[in-house]
């Protein structure tokens, strides 16, 4: 698979459509699976990892699923390309930084991705635009069943699907909903909302998973518990919480529009103006400004720019994407100049 | 702050969170930290943390007889020691769930508030699929061999499973 062909697209999760897309960016479900006859990745010898990689590569690339999967040998990729796949959420940072034989298979829509030799030997992932937990579950459940007909999973009656880390055992399921909460951020209510999440065993993370900072008021909300509840039970818990978050965020947006319309209009217009004219731009500042512009579009304060354009800028200005688009690796300062140049050009082309 | 083993100034401080509001703190001087093997010095001159020793030290006085027994366990399949698992948080192979079961159950109850799976079952593993059924049966035999400590037979069974897996 040629990664360069992906650059001009944005992938399924940034399509900017789907249910509740004014607040929910994307839905992702991943399943952790291992084979019964091998040690877990961290304990496997180099030879066993190679054996696992070739066995699983063979099974996943011949998998009979509606959208064919292409395979990328992650171990053979230069660091920039690995970072590129992380930014597109096709692989995890762990897989990018791991050592030894490993890879990923994904389809053209970039909706299904199967990682090989991550912390678990198999990490199956399905992405959807907007809030679509049931749809995502149905697809990943089907991929999982199809694959399971070809390999023997490590499974026990008591503990369910066996994983390298006991925090993933049982269903092996982690569902993450990525939400954009600028109004709760502006009205300083985020902490209050998140505190209530911890009580029900959900975790809040930044955009790129564990340990990443939340910039631009984008957050991932996921389940922590994986054992002792059914998949549908876990998903309906998250669904319930997201419904409440949607309600709070929209309520806060309504209040802002009603009480501070002028101030808000000024804020989102300035954000767009800065993106159009600045000559140096960090990744974080871009994220903050695009977050404001996104809010402006959703509230009808900006109407000459589309959500899809914002999403495209959002992924294209990430460090690895930018370097691939501009061609060649750059240090931080050159990158900030190139990012600003890219934003100016793109926004002009979009006729804004 | 003084070392809790001798009266020298403590230079190594470790905290373990044992519960939501409880924690256990260990303060050691350089010499005692070395004596407790908190650091391992491999070929490289750079000192690295010896996680299992630290975990052992922190759990030290709390070890019940059952935990003492667990601390001596090693998985015959992948060779991981129970204390290595406690130090690193990662298991070595699927069989560890059976081998370390007594130690895992309390951990799972704390993390998930449950110690039994209540969700999807692999449909093909249970269905009457010839190859998968044979592998499944070999697994059952493997577990029996482990339970009765017939490790040589277990090793042979594991190889047979792998062979079937690769030819399937």
Residue runs with pLDDT of under 50 for 5 or more positions of chain B? 41-46
Largest sheet of chain A: 8 strands, antiparallel
First-to-last CA distance of chain B: 62 Å
| Strand residue content of chain B | 5-15%
User: What percent strand of chain A?
Assistant: 15-25%
Largest interface: A-B, 46 and 42 residues
Quaternary structure of the protein: heterodimer
Helix and strand succession of chain B? EEHEEHHHHHHHH
Low-pLDDT stretches of chain A? none
Determine the mean pLDDT of chain B. Answer: 76
Radius of gyration of chain A: 21 Å
Number of helices of chain A: 12
Q: Percent of residues of chain A in helical segments?
A: 40-55%
> Shape of chain B from CA axes?
elongated
Number of helices, counting only DSSP H or I runs of 4 residues or more of chain B: 9
- Judged by helices, strands and strand pairing, the structural class of chain A is alpha+beta
Major β-sheet profile of chain B: 2 strands, antiparallel
Q: Order of strands side by side in the largest beta sheet of chain B?
A: 1-2
Spatial shape of chain A? globular
What do these coordinates show?
With 352 residues, chain A is α+β, with helices and mostly antiparallel strands. Chain A contains twelve helices and ten strands. Chain A has an eight-stranded antiparallel sheet, covered by helices on one side. In chain A, a hairpin with a 3-residue loop joins strand 6 (155-156) and strand 7. In chain A, helix 11 packs across helix 12. With 168 residues, chain B is mostly helical. Chain B contains nine helices and four strands; from the N terminus they run ββαββαααααααα. In chain B, the strands form two sheets. Chain B has a two-stranded antiparallel sheet. In chain B, strand 3 and strand 4 (48-49) form a beta hairpin. Chain B starts with 11 loop residues before the first strand and ends with a helix. The interface between A and B is large, with 46 and 42 residues.
């Amino acid at each position: 698979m040629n990664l360069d062909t992906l650059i001009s697209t944005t992938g399924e999760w940034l399509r900017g459509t789907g249910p509740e897309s004014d607040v929910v960016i994307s839905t992702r479900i991943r399943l952790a699976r291992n084979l019964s006859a091998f040690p877990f990745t961290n304990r496997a010898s180099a030879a066993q990892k190679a054996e696992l990689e070739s066995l699983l590569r063979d099974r996943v690339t011949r998998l009979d699923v509606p959208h064919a999967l292409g395979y990328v040998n992650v171990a053979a990729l230069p660091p920039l390309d690995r970072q590129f796949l992380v930014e597109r959420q096709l692989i995890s940072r762990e897989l990018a930084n791991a050592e030894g034989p490993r890879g990923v298979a994904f389809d053209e829509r970039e909706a299904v991705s199967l990682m090989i030799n991550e912390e678990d030997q198999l990490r199956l992932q399905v992405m959807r635009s907007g809030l679509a937990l049931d749809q995502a579950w149905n697809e990943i459940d089907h991929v999982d069943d199809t694959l399971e007909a070809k390999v023997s999973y490590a499974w026990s009656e008591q503990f369910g699907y066996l994983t390298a880390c006991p925090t993933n055992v049982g269903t092996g399921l982690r569902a993450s909903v990525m939400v954009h909460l600028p109004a709760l951020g502006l009205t300083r209510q985020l902490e209050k909302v998140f505190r209530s999440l911890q009580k029900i065993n959900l975790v809040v993370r930044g955009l790129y998973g564990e340990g990443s900072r939340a910039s631009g008021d984008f957050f991932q909300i996921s389940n922590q518990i994986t054992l002792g509840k059914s998949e549908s039970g876990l998903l309906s818990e998250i669904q319930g919480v997201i419904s409440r978050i949607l309600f709070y965020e929209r309520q806060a947006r309504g209040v802002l529009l009603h009480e501070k319309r002028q101030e808000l209009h000024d804020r989102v217009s300035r954000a767009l103006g800065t993106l159009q004219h600045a000559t140096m731009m960090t990744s974080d500042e871009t994220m903050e400004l695009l977050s404001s512009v996104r809010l402006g579009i959703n509230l009808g304060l900006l109407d000459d720019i589309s959500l899809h354009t914002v999403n495209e800028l959002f992924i294209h200005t990430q460090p690895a994407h930018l370097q691939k688009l501009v061609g060649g690796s750059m240090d931080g300062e050159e990158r900030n100049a190139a990012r600003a140049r890219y934003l100016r050009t793109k926004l002009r082309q979009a006729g804004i | 702050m003084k070392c809790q083993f001798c009266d020298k100034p403590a230079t190594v401080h470790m905290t373990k969170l044992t519960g939501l509001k409880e924690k256990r703190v260990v303060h050691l001087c350089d010499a005692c930290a070395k004596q407790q093997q908190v650091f391992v010095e491999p070929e490289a001159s750079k000192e690295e943390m010896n996680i299992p020793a630290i975990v052992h030290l922190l759990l030290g006085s709390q070890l019940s007889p059952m935990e003492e027994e667990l601390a001596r366990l090693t998985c015959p399949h992948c060779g991981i020691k129970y204390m290595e698992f406690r130090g690193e948080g990662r298991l070595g192979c699927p069989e560890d769930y059976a081998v370390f079961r007594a130690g895992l159950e309390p951990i799972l109850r704390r993390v998930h508030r449950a110690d039994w799976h209540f969700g999807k079952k692999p449909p093909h593993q249970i269905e009457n699929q010839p190859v998968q059924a044979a592998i499944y049966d070999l697994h059952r035999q493997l577990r029996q061999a482990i339970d009765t400590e017939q490790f040589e037979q277990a090793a042979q069974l594991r190889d047979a499973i792998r062979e079937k897996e690769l030819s399937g």
